[in-house]
Design brief:
Mean pLDDT: 80
Helix content: 55-70%
Largest sheet: 3 strands, mixed
CATH class of the largest domain: Mainly Alpha
Structural class: mainly alpha
CATH architecture of the largest domain: Up-down Bundle
Number of strands: 5
CATH topology of the largest domain: Na+/H+ antiporter like fold
């Protein structure tokens, strides 16, 4: 079959399986993986092993984009807000996971120490593609989402560094000094660890130089894609990790150029087909036949990796005494595993076949499980963590999906035949309320906070306007950077003025108000978001509703004309 026809078929099946996944309320990425399994060698053989080799470039571009996005999460101002938690969380999770996997494989199965250690290091890796796609699908926002993204980057960075060092030492001890000198091992390790960052920084500086000029939106896309592809291509030329190269490129660019966010937004407009094809091809590459052959080593690796991540992050959150994010939910968001672990395992097969081949067998078998349950558990953790808008979880017919489209088609046929339509019978038809679109995790300012404390909170926050609350969480008012701008230069006022003194009253909405009511207030207030406050005597602050979320939801519902009329 023609390669282009196969790709078209893959996209169509991915679209259908994504709709089915949404219908049964699992992440679409799981539907894409199942589409790949359906088309792959394990079932229909539409995508054969030889055929998969023709589409390697799609995987490379998709992984390059994903690594670039992860790198962009390391923006200094953003990372500053997480510096008191993420390093500790990541260190504890990595340490516990490595120790648990290594000791169980070594003691229970008497595995060779080298193989047990390499598997323990691979257990650190988290598949960034599946994680990012689930976060984007559910538009999650909050401390849990921020920590997951940051820890995915740190986990994969640590995995690459530890694996490169360990594998080179294992190869030295396996072959002996007669074949490999310690100098050769040291040189190879340095090459693997230092060339990717150097290339990433160089490419980022090249892109930055170009972005300083006035360029069109399409040129933004050209320069960013060329940088990502250059990073992936040069990495393969030097036989180093393209994931590390593009991750460093994203981190360097976001901290050196203020137009990087424009690049990211432009890339997001075209990246989804690459992601869909990436997961279809990943599903087709899953070796279902090895599930029955992973043996006790595979089962122990599977269970100990899950336990290590959940226990490690949970211990870290208790150690740091942080109420948010929840340790168990954070651990669930880090369970997906695929490309990086397989790529490093294949490198081990080439370098030390005696250890690499059984290592690869375990990774291939467990990847099938992790790639299916990982996105589902990530979705569950984001929902339970309260970082997904309720509207994303309503009846599929409320937000539009395959069932809604099918019912609409049936009703049009019924109307053509003179039969009254029955569209949406038995499906939720009530109005969409503020609580369906509100965001819960918003930084707040205590009413007794001094001016210095207010400035510090705003410095770490995503928002320039924040709600002020009392000791019980009751709504007091709003404070913005504009409100305190003129007070910055009077040092004496820094300890005299408190948040309650400068908090200004604004119109609030209730979680049970309709979107139409919120839209009307938006036009009066001319603000980017409105505080959501519980009705009653206490007026407890619950969250905010964004103007952007309301407009995007109305656009999804096909109300473009109404939005234009209102705005």
């Amino acid at each position: 079959m023609n390669n282009i026809v196969i790709l078209a078929l893959a996209l169509v099946v991915a679209l259908l399986m994504g709709r089915v996944a949404a219908f049964v309320r699992i992440p679409k990425v799981t539907g894409y993986l199942l589409a790949g399994i359906l088309l792959g060698p394990s079932v229909t053989e539409v995508l054969t092993k030889n055929c998969l080799g023709n589409y390697v470039i799609i995987n490379e571009i998709a992984l390059g984009m994903i690594a670039f996005y992860i790198g962009c999460e390391f923006e200094s101002s953003h990372f500053k807000r997480l510096r008191k938690t993420v390093p500790y969380f990541s260190f504890t999770e990595i340490l516990i996971t490595i120790a648990l996997v290594f000791l169980l494989l070594l003691i229970a199965l008497h595995e060779a120490p080298a193989m047990a250690l390499l598997l323990a290091i691979l257990a650190i890796a988290t598949a960034p593609a599946a994680t990012i796609l689930v976060i984007r699908e559910y538009d999650s926002e909050g401390p849990l989402t921020n920590h997951i993204l940051a820890m995915v980057g740190l986990n994969n960075l640590a995995c690459i560094v530890f694996f490169v060092i360990t594998l080179n030492l294992v190869s030295f001890t396996s072959f002996g000094a007669e074949k490999l000198s310690l100098l050769v091992v040291f040189t190879e390790t340095a090459r693997q660890l230092f060339i990717p960052p150097l290339m990433g920084v160089a490419i980022a500086l090249f892109i930055r130089l170009y972005l300083r000029r006035e360029i069109e939106q399409n040129e933004l896309l050209l320069v960013s894609l060329s940088g990502i592809m250059l990073g992936a291509g040069l990495s393969h030329c030097f036989s180093v990790s393209p994931l590390l190269t593009n991750l460093v490129m994203g981190a360097t660019l976001i901290n050196s150029c203020d137009r990087t966010n424009m690049v990211v937004e432009r890339l997001k407009q075209v990246d989804y087909p690459f992601y869909a094809l990436f997961f279809v091809l990943a599903g087709a590459s899953l070796h279902l036949e090895v599930l029955g052959e992973i043996g006790a080593a595979g089962v122990l690796y599977l269970l100990s990796r899950i336990a290590g991540k959940l226990i490690g992050v949970n211990l870290a959150t208790k150690w740091r005494k942080t109420p948010e994010p929840n340790g168990i939910y954070l651990g669930m968001g880090l369970l997906s595993q695929a490309g990086l672990a397989i790529g490093l395992s294949s490198w081990a097969v080439k370098k030390v076949p005696l250890i690499g081949e059984p290592l690869m067998a375990v990774i291939l078998g467990t990847t099938v499980v992790f790639e299916i349950i990982g996105p589902i558990l990530a979705r569950y953790s984001l929902i339970k963590g309260g970082e997904v808008k309720i509207v994303k979880l309503l009846s599929p017919a409320t937000v539009g999906d395959f069932r809604e489209d099918f019912y609409m088609l049936l009703d049009r046929v019924r109307e053509a035949l003179g039969i009254s339509p029955s569209y949406m019978k038995g499906v939720y038809e009530g109005p969409v309320l503020v609580k369906h679109l509100m965001r819960h995790h918003i930084d707040t300012i205590p009413q007794n906070a001094t001016l210095d404390k207010i400035v510090k909170i705003m410095e770490w926050s995503r928002y320039s306007t924040l709600p002020v609350v009392d000791e019980k969480g009751a709504w007091v008012g709003m404070v913005s950077l504009t409100d305190i701008r003129d007070l910055f230069f009077d040092k004496e006022l820094g300890h005299l003025i408190i948040a309650k003194d400068i908090a200004r009253p604004v119109t609030t909405v209730s979680p049970v108000d309709t979107l139409e009511h919120a839209m009307g207030i938006f036009e009066l207030e001319q603000s980017s978001y409105l505080p959501v406050v519980k009705q009653g005597k206490n007026r407890h602050f619950l969250g905010v509703i964004h103007r952007r979320d309301v407009y995007l939801f109305r656009l999804d519902k096909g109300s473009v004309e109404e939005i234009e009329k209102n705005g």
